[in-house]
Amino acid sequence: MIRISREELAARIASDIPEGSYVNLGIGAPTLVADFLPEGREVVLHTENGMLGMGPAPVDGGIDPDLINAGKQPVTALAGAAYFHHADSFGMMRGGHLDVCVLGAFQVSETGDLANWSTGAEDAIPAVGGAMDLAIGAKQVYVMTDLLTRSGESKLVARCTYPLTGVGCVTRIYTDHAVFDVTAEGLVVRETFGATIAELSDITGLVLR
Amino acid sequence: MIRISREELAARIASDIPEGSYVNLGIGAPTLVADFLPEGREVVLHTENGMLGMGPAPVDGGIDPDLINAGKQPVTALAGAAYFHHADSFGMMRGGHLDVCVLGAFQVSETGDLANWSTGAEDAIPAVGGAMDLAIGAKQVYVMTDLLTRSGESKLVARCTYPLTGVGCVTRIYTDHAVFDVTAEGLVVRETFGATIAELSDITGLVLR
Amino acid sequence: MIDKTVPDAAAAVAGIPDGATVMIGGFGRAGQPVELIDALIAQGAGDLTIVNNNAGNGDTGLAALLAAGRVRRIVCSFPRQSDSWVFDDLYRSGRIELELVPQGNLAERIRAAGAGVGAFYSPTGVGTQLAEGREHRVIDGREYVLEYPIRADYALVSARKGDRWGNLVYRGTARNFGPVMAAAATTTIAQVDEIVPLGALDPEGIVTPGIFVDRVVSVGERAWLDDGVFVGGVDREGRAAS
Amino acid sequence: MIDKTVPDAAAAVAGIPDGATVMIGGFGRAGQPVELIDALIAQGAGDLTIVNNNAGNGDTGLAALLAAGRVRRIVCSFPRQSDSWVFDDLYRSGRIELELVPQGNLAERIRAAGAGVGAFYSPTGVGTQLAEGREHRVIDGREYVLEYPIRADYALVSARKGDRWGNLVYRGTARNFGPVMAAAATTTIAQVDEIVPLGALDPEGIVTPGIFVDRVVSVGERAWLDDGVFVGGVDREGRAAS
Q1: According to the UniProt entry, what is the EC number of this protein (chains C, D) (predicted)?
Q2: Which of A193, B6, C186, D14 has the CA that lies 20 to 30 A from B205?
Q3: What is the pTM of this model?
């Protein structure tokens, strides 16, 4: 089946984010979305560690250790940026002020449950960070993920088997094969990059529309 | 019986406030205390409407309508002052960060209940402001009041008949006749300005020590 | 390009419907968005629920909105002042409803709305009339009362400067309720003395980030900011509303 | 005269006893009060409970405190990072206790402690392992979990500048947990790059008012503030701990 690259997927997500949106991009692949926001479209990026108006990574020599993103990578501040403390930052999330967040996932259920913080492995060291706050806080919670795991299992599932991050919180799932909307009537294929709905149903084992 | 003036009482209270204290002075007579803080003793005044480091009233021509105290009187800001919003300001109170507040009173009970926001009169328009927050918030809640009402009734009572502002919150009562500490064993006369304990017991109708 | 600025106060308050809940910033007159309130009066919306610390001073601003008969209900901590005659008359004649809230609970309930807190336990008001009928709980040996968020459809706030993203800085004690109200309303409208270019506000000093603001209108510099001439807030003699 | 400044980091951390609960500011290395932590290691207090967003990076700062065996228990949101090998080893060998808290609940619980809120209902974590055993409540049709304040005996924070009253300003995203932790501890100790004269900080821009701060120590300017040379925070290649 046709798959699109991670960069193509990031561009696809970026193109769906309207001008003027307040957006949080999760650690990892979602961070890529920032690189593909259309030229001239103003979108305000939020980072959980206390900034709105986050800019791109600094050019050589401009690294400022007091200016990092949620992944602890060096970033810059745009004109119009504002800093605030952690309680205010998470108040923005919890209070529903972010328009969009984009998160990675281990699993997403057909009812929008998200599992992205723990595989539940016995020896794993748990770490949750801001994932649970983002999952329940943004108006639109987009997941960006490969549809299948490396071993070929669907990350879209009837019911998550991994520990949950949030219940019924995901609104849309962007995968390398297709984009799915979570609706009251189940998963709806919003767009496919080549695969048919039947093929997608087959590899996910889910009823899709 | 010997009574001291309101100004003398303000000076008495001021002399009891240690250097470095964070202090909120309530609307009305308590505001006078600021005028009697000993020269050179640094005390940081808090005003509920969002400032620490409040200074005295401005001299002629210096009135700034953006710079007022809780009584909506014009004030100034000292070097070291800081502004903050209302939730932060009342967080300071509720969180127990103020060392002292000085409040007026209609009644104080021998167990430290305070009534200072409403006489419960049928036709009165109620208004509470920050009184309830101050009453429960400061480490030391001092009341500054005449011992007797204009009609000669004691404001120190066994049990408040006016609507309460706070329960068991007052730690000390400064009156024109004497100063009382509220203790687990009842009211203790800390200092008298002339009256004997027997005389004070007589006019208050309370057991005093 | 994001541009939240609007040309005038009339455009700023456009669309506020009858029956709306409107938070209005200010403590007395300090920080009261008088120009927005005047525009709201001209706009005509009525049957409003207003959330403010007070209930109007003198005959201008919030008092004028009340006098115009547009307010059904007011949520505040301190309506009774020496210059609250407009409210006093409405209240005594039963033409306005009042929900009296201790000031700190008012501020924290507004903050809770903006921060997505479902409810919180406050020690303020326990044992008083104002906590009657509310749920109580003892936590670590101390009694608290359960307080719920106060949300609004609109917030009208006054700030010193703003930019096209809606970032705001305030001035002195005029900051008061502006920041928490801006975050607690579906639509937040800010009047500022001056709109400055994006990037002109120090990112360390922005008090209300633009995420909380929908419309910004400049109402012009207040003369006293420069020359000390008094306009609004307290009266010319410096006598205060108590 | 109020003077909260102390001469050096050793004086700043004096008196912290064994068994204390100590909040430490910072998000990763940004805002981590490394000099105060080093002084705490030298001071010798052990059996500590630490509250921090993470659980140490590399071998310095908080990681060094952990490596020195001084920490019995850590409360944090994100211990596992690419450079958290000190914690990882302690945790896997059962030599440290972990309380994992979603980051926003961590921040808000710390804020609640400072603001005198007895407890609050958060929507974060509902339906997850991290809310198991906690009290739940449906408010306005949404489910919340009851969260209690996190208090501390001491808070160690890092700020950009401070004055003798303890007023603090931060820098960039190094602000993070400093302001809420400063308000949540019985004794708050701040390291700053620079102590400035009283009145030198803009009163509109002070982020932590001195009421929340007990001791201030200058640790000197960090070189990179002026010349862009990297010290701490992220590694020299700009690769991040994920």
Answers
A1: 2.8.3.6
A2: B6
A3: 0.96
